Amino acid sequence: MLDLTTILIVTLATACLQALVWIFAWRAWRHLYELKFLAAGFVAMAVGVLLMLVRGEQPADWAIIIPNTVIKLGLVLLAEGLARFLGQPRYSWIGISLLIAHVAAWSAIVAVDPGDVALRIHASTVFTVIVMSVMCLGLARDRTQPPLLRWVTIAVLAEYMLASIVQSVLELGLPADFQSAPVLADRNAWYLLQGTLFLIALFACLLFMVSSRLSADLREKNESLSREVQERRRLESRLSASLETERALREEQVDLMRVVSHEFRTPLAVIRNATEMIGLVGDGSPSTKRARLAGINEALDRLFALIDRFMGDDREHTYRPEQIRIGSVIAEVRRHFELTDCSDRLDVAAHDRDIAFRADAEMMVTILINLIDNALKYSPDDRPVRIAVREELDCLVVEVRDRGMGIPEDELGKVGRRFFRASNAKGVMGTGLGIYSARRLLAYHGATLDLEPRADGGTAAIVRVPLPAELDRELLFEGVPA
Question: What is the pTM of this model?
Answer without folding.
Answer: 0.50
